[in-house]
Amino acid sequence: MSAIQERFDRYDLLVHRSRVVGWERLVGRVRRLRECLLAQEEALLPVLLETLAEPPRRGSATTALELLQEMALPAQVAALPAVLNHVGDRNNWAWLDAATFLQRVPVEELVPHVIAALLWPWEPYHERYTTGKTTWEEDVYGIQDLLLLPGMDRGVVRGCVEVIYYQLLCDDLWTCRSRSWREGERLYWLEMELELLERGGVQEWMVPGLIGVMRHYPGAGELEQVQRLLRELPEEGGAGRQEERLMRLLEPRWVERGAEVGGQEGELGEMVRELGSVGKERGTGLAYVRVVWELEEERMREGEPAAGWVRPGGRELGVWLRVLERVGVEPWMAPALVEVVRRYPQAEEGEVARRLLGRLPKEELRRYREILRLLGLGELVGEEAAPQAEREKWGRVGQWSEEEKRAGKEMGREWGELGALVEDYVESYHEWWWHSGERERLRLQELKERLRAEGERVVEVLAALLEDRSQRGRMTPIFVFLQELGYPWNAKALASALRLVGDPQYERGVFTLLWGVPAVELLPQLLVALLVPGRPYHWEGDEQEEGETAGCGLSSYDFWVLDVYGGLAGWLVEPRTEQGLVERCGPVAFYLLSYEVGRWRRGWAGERSAGVEVWLRVVERAGVQEWMAPALVEVARQELKTWEGKMARQLLGRLSKEELRPYRELLRRAGLGELVGREEEQEPGGQGAERLRVLVRRMEDLSEEEVREELRGIEEEELLPYVLEAVQELGEAEEESRQEGIGRLLAQGALAGEVVEGCRGVGYYQLAWLLEERRRRELDPLAGEEEQQGGRGWSKAALERGCRVWLRVLERAGVQGWMAPALVEVARRYPQAEEGEVARRLLGRLPKEELRAYRLILEQSGLGELGS
Q1: Which residue pairs, CB below 8 angstroms and at least 24 apart, start in 673-682?
Q2: Residue 143: closest CA among 202, 102, 203
Q3: Over 261-316, what HEC string results?
Q4: pLDDT at 242 over 60
Q5: Which of 30, 172, 38 is nearest to 548 (CA)?
Q6: Are 595 and 769 in contact (CB under 8 A)?
Q7: 503 vs 362: CA distance, rounded Å
Q8: DSSP labels for 571-609?
Q9: Half-sphere exposure of 480 (CA within 13 A, CB side)
């Protein structure tokens, strides 16, 4: 990938994951990347065109369209063929975005491309099937849907009305010849095209075609619409007799005269006189109808012409073209004449059509300039002809696919015969996927057997390929083969595979690979991936760019967030994921949930926090425990009506009333007293509730002796709810010192041991928030800038001091196994600091069996003996 492609790929990935990870976490990086991309419009445009042609992810086309909206008009016009390719199918993910984009393009620029998309059946306006056929026929109806949208400028419809009429004639003939209509059936194509003609304006020369429709479908409900359109035309003298003559001239015997006269001058003159008997415009319109019908008859017989088509048209077509030449060519005939040139470029009929087009004023043909350029007739409108590559039927952008081919060849040279074998397998897989034939299946099976015979070496090659983000076309075949290899081979590629779990394009492949690894082998690696940014389980940061592109890379923290929040959290809640494995990850889920609740509580995550939702789902699957109460209580009492609040209350309801009793003041004040029993809704006896509340909040201003004196005679069980309330409610930055002061008193022994033990959960909750915020400040280069802009006054010193205080609280309260994630992180990240020493000491008090799952992290930190 080029540098600009990598930047767009990062931007697209961030936009995709913003709903899962949380827009507020990514907005700074997205804004920086967006500015960087739009500053390089010329280099960005080919990347956006390739993305529109082959979106790498669901929604990538939407991302490209959003960027195009902010680019200059020439770039938007250059993208119109690729954008029109997305409106053919209403089920396309980007249909609405493409339609919105097209509605904002000036009419004079849009009309030529819409006409080209309606008439030109190949790339760049339509996709191609493996059979060689394109999506043109289906796309035409999607484009007509687009023209009917209320927001579409009527000028676009008026500019395309001749093409709509031409297609109505083609659809009419096909329906008649195929005998696909039964009386009483609804003619959807006719209904749509008549509505478009009504919006664009009906003309006299359309009368023959509309009368033909009335004759072909007697009893059809759409005939009322045809009659209404005909009544809108001004009446002429002798209109009734003209109608009778038109009906007679539309009889099969008369329209087949072209084959009989053979182009003789006398007979041609007689046909022209008979056409003139119904009026000039209607007679000319009748000759035009016959030209269109002959073209459609030929297409139905022979199919779409291949490249280099030299076969002449039918005899009747040549006769009716000469009749058209006699009665006089008009601008509204351009669609059929362009189609004749396209189908018969080297035949006599094509020459006649080119001659007729040359007689039309250039200004009238300006709307057809794009398709004329593709036909090599740009000189008719004063334009240069399109390059040969653009006119060829296989014309595509193909920039990324070419780079992938070059990268594949380099890989083959690097790995020798084995690399070439992998390349053959990838190509064979794609051939089998497209064609699904027996020959392709046998070839694919043979290559798989040869790869299996290579053993561990082939796994090394495949793992190396997974680490190359430019090899996007090879990822799916690699995942399929690794899944078929099974354990233990698939486990050897886990580190490489997990780096892709944050990308929705490869998410399901990684999920399936993880399901094939036994839990006992997977858990230690999974915990490393959940807790430790950077290699070997995540991409390293790539922010080395400088100058105008500075800040356009992603940090190792960004990649970790995308992988953990956007990928692994989703895998943990998948039904196929082993329940026991999810339960072992419960402490990590609570650790990360605590941080997300802390961010949201301080107003850093917007009104709704995607991170809170992500980890609530994991906690629900893992099973709620008593020590999870602090974070759940905080969400439940702050979010009464949202999904997060309801889920938190549901999870709290799974705990016993006795386990929730310490949180009774918080729950009662939030109107959730039923969670701890109705008797708890009353004020406790002995000391007044307000006196206790005030006392607790004053404690940080008192010495230890004064605190003990004030608390003399108060039962620990009575005091604990107010201590928890004070710690939980102090969420503003300016109150951090008071919260820290209470923590310091807990750590120093000013409060009774039972109160300290009761604060074990809330102490860990506070430590998790402080520790993860420190990680973000240390690893995310944009964190400092965002903090200054948002006015968040959390200094580095305050975060460090808070971590030490709450670690001391946990030391006095007593360490338990579920605290391992935070303690392991402290010991790993700050081995030389005071908090690192405390964490190591606390880890040493835990049984080795509880730390065995964290052994890979501990070994990296030089503490392998704790989990061995």
Answers
A1: 675/649
A2: 102
A3: HCCCHHHHHHHHHHHHCCCHHHHHHHHHHHHHHHHHHHHHHHCCCCCCCCCCCCHH
A4: no
A5: 38
A6: yes
A7: 51
A8: HHTSTTS-HHHHHHTHHHHHHHHHHHHHHHHTTSS-SS-
A9: 15
Q: Which helix (H) or strand (E) holds 769?
A: helix 760-779
Question: Exposed, middle or buried by CB within 10 Å (0-12, 13-18, 19+), for 59?
Answer: middle
Beta bridge partners of 134: 128
φ/ψ region of 803 (left if φ > 0, alpha if ψ in -120 to 50, else beta) reads: alpha
**pLDDT tens-digit profile of 289-304?**
888 888 888 877 766 6
Give the pLDDT of residue 41.
87
If you search the block for the tokens 């209320």, which residue do you land on?
A: 150
- The pairs formed by 187-192 with CB atoms below 8 angstroms and a separation of 24 or more are 187/217, 187/220, 187/222, 189/141, 190/217, 190/220, 190/222, 191/222, 191/225, 192/141, 192/144, 192/145, 192/148
Residue with tokens 């209350």, as numbered in its chain: 649
Q: Is 203 exposed, middle or buried (0-12, 13-18, 19+ CB in 10 A)?
A: middle
Could you tell me the pLDDT band of residue 240, with boundaries at 50, 70 and 90?
very low
The string of DSSP letters for 151-162 reads TS-HHHHHHHHH
Q: How many helices (H) and strands (E) does the chain have?
A: 53, 0
Structure tokens at 727: 């710690």
Q: Which residues pair with 128 in a beta bridge?
A: 134
Q: Which amino acid, one-letter code, is at 618?
A: V
For residue 500, give the nearest of 1, 9, 7, 8 by alpha carbon: 9
Between CA 182 and CA 173 the distance in angstroms is 15
Show the tokens assigned to 515: 């399901």
CB atoms within 10 A of CB 23: 16
State how far the Cα of 574 lies from the Cα of 705, in Å rounded to an integer.
54
Rounded-to-integer distance, Cα 818 and Cα 625, Å: 10
Average pLDDT estimate for 28-52: 87
Give the model's pLDDT for residue 826: 93
What is the pTM for the complete model shown? Answer: 0.79
CA Rg value for the chain: 37
Listing DSSP states for 100-130 in one string gives: HHHHTS-HHHHHHHHHHHHH--STTTS-B-T
Q: How far apart are CA 166 and CA 169, in angstroms?
A: 5
Instruction: Tell me the two tokens of residue 692.
Output: 């206790």
Rounded CA separation 337/698 (Å): 91
Q: In angstroms, rounded to a whole number, what is the distance separating the alpha carbons of residues 803 and 825? A: 12
- Alpha-carbon span 13 to 26, nearest angstrom: 11
CA distances to 524, 531, 535 from 856, rounded to whole Å, are: 6, 11, 13
Write out the two tokens for 403: 């780079």
CA distance 331 to 276: 19
